[in-house]
Amino acid sequence: MKSTIEINEANFETEVLRSTQPVLVEFITGWSPPSTFLDGALDEIATEFLDCLKVATVKLDRNPNLGLWYGIRSIPTMLFFVDGEVSIGIFGSASKEAILSQLRPVINSAAIDQLNNVRDSRIQAA
What we know:
alpha/beta; 5 strands; five-stranded mixed β-sheet
């Protein structure tokens, strides 16, 4: 089952910039062989971290403005967004382990922050 979502110019703000979860966005083209290399790894990451991370793809041949806005110069490029801001950039093909080694500290920190926000809202409601 594919756990990644496709992002476009119309839904980028909602799905990425306003997301309550951190979002790993892969910028690809539909025709580039290096772009297809990561598909399996990203699906595994999306499934493994389903509760605390959103994984998405942007096809630049269909959404060129997103590539321009974020200065994408090589394919594939992955940008990790936390609270609407780019936190990490990963450029070129990378293994699942290489991707996770860069994301884990931020994912863990974001998950802790999210749990604290839930706890704080429950305390305020009581």
